[in-house]
Amino acid sequence: MDKYMDSVLTFADKISNNKYLKAISNGLMATLPVNIIGSIALLLAVLPIEGWKNFIASINLGGYFSVGYSMTVGVISLYAAFLVGHRLATEFNQSAVPAGIVSLFAFLMMTPLTTLDETTTLDMSKLGAEGLFTAMICGLVFARIYCLILEKNISIKMPAGVPQFVSDTFAGLIPAIIVGFIAIIISWLFSFTTYGSFSDFVYQLLASPLQSLSSSVGSLVFIVLIQMVLWFFGIHGSLVVGSFITALYLPMDVQNMDALASGVARSDLPNILSKSFYDLFAGIGGAGGTLSLIIVILLLAKSKQSRTVANLSAVPGMFTINEPMIFGLPLILNPLMAIPFILTPLVQTLVAYLAIWSGLFPRLSGIQVPFGTPIFLNGFLAGGWQIALLQIICVLAGCLLYLPFVKIMDKEKVKSEEQAAAMEASETESEKLSVDGKTV
Q: Is the pLDDT of residue 260 over 60?
């Protein structure tokens, strides 16, 4: 059993430290600023307040909010192509900016052209959600080729005394040219296929099936289950699955935002599941849904240790920081608390999904809320008071799951604390008698 667990832990560690997965995860995470700008712009553009709509229309501001969205989330694949390539080069300790630039160029070369009113231009639809998988592939493949050429020392060497930035520019010139022409040739070859372009090939063969898979709540539940099992054994499961969550579910947020920007009603948005859904519901208060655990302990527990840990964890827990609870209680390798610790985020995910699927609560618009935004406020910003209310319902469901286990744990801890106190009192009394005996 120990040998099997060692193999699992080693495999999980390799995944979390894989350079390519880290490049995807960190690269897409780096798009958060433009995602938030676009989210706010979209929110202000479609805010369902008649007075606000009339005001921005009267000063011609609404159109600029729409442009702000179009130039951020609407072309998110452009940012992703550069940033994934940039982060991969960083992982291989090579010049990051040139790698990002050649990745962006390769992505643009892979994007099909379209003709509108006798003007040929890039297909803008492939610069948004539809192009994200192409952007990730270009960022990984072409940045890696660029780094590989540099590692082989195929570059222009400048003489000593030349400024460093000039030397770095010329060092990356040959690798950039080689990678650029590889991208041109690949784009040209795909023009002879039935797909027409590499971007359409990726979308039809990879992106569309993966998005169909990720639209299933069972897939998300499975990912969260893996995450929680890893957490139980002391591995940061959120980091391990983070790259998969971002790659699979961020495009679904973008699709929802695109639909909302085009005038689609919240009830008709294409996706229930998304990265926003995962962030808001798959473990409220952090991995394990520990906000519910904190509430139960503070309301019912008598153990001094448990109450001290819960008090220290309460404020960080409201900001989705729950390491004090996980390692302080502890929850790691705690067989008694394993069941609610693993099950709570699964139940919260299912409760939220069914509530939205049934139409009782609105679908998330895809608006991105920064990590660390207080719980309930993040739900309100992402979907209004209904989503904040749904978070409260999910927290209460988590409380019911944790309740019986907290009672058992508390009984054991109180008993242990009482025994320790009695032992300490006995030792104190013995010391007192010993001192008194010497005095006499």
A: yes
Higher pLDDT, 436 or 245: 245
Question: What amino acid is encoded at 272 in this protein?
Answer: I
Would you say residue 5 has pLDDT above 60? no
The tokens 């699927």 sit on which residue?
357
Residue-averaged pLDDT of the chain? 84
CB 178 within 8 A of CB 149: yes
Residue 164: its pLDDT value, please?
Answer: 66
Longest alpha-carbon distance in the chain: 111
Q: What span, in angstroms and rounded, lies between the C-alpha atoms of 362 and 141?
A: 39
Q: Using CA atoms, how far apart are residues 423 and 10, in angstroms rounded to an integer?
A: 42
Residue whose C-alpha is closest to residue 306's, from 328, 339, 280, 273: 328
> Locate tokens 């369902």: which residue?
48
CA 345 to chain centre: 15
Residues near 396 by beta carbon (within 8 Å), at least 6 away in sequence:
292
Q: Which run of H or of E encompasses 82?
A: helix 76-91
User: Tokens representing 402?
Assistant: 């944790």
pLDDT bin (cut points 50, 70, 90) of residue 322 is confident
Place of tokens 């302080």: 328
**Which residues sit opposite 122 in a β-bridge?**
113
The answer to whether 345 and 282 have CB atoms below 8 angstroms apart is: yes
Q: What would the mean pLDDT of 268-296 be, rounded to a whole number?
A: 92
- Give the burial string for 79-103 (b: 16+ CB within 10 Å, else e): bbbbbbbbbbbbbbebbbebbbbbb
Beta bridge partners of 114: 121
270, two tokens: 């294409």
Encoding tokens for residue 232? 């139980």
pLDDT band at 103 (very low <50, low <70, confident <90, very high): very high
Query: Can you give the pTM of this predicted structure?
Result: 0.74
Element (H, E) at 377: helix 377-383
The separation between the first and the last C-alpha atoms of the chain, rounded to the nearest angstrom, is 61
Q: Under a CB-based contact definition with an 8 Å cutoff, are residues 251 and 133 in contact?
A: yes
Q: Quick: pLDDT tens for 35-53.
A: 888 888 888 887 767 888 8
d(CA 370, CA 372): 6
What are the tokens at 371? 């990590």
Backbone angles phi, psi at 119, to 5 degrees: -115, 125
Q: What is the pLDDT of residue 81?
A: 94
Using an 8 Å Cβ cutoff, are 413 and 306 in contact? yes
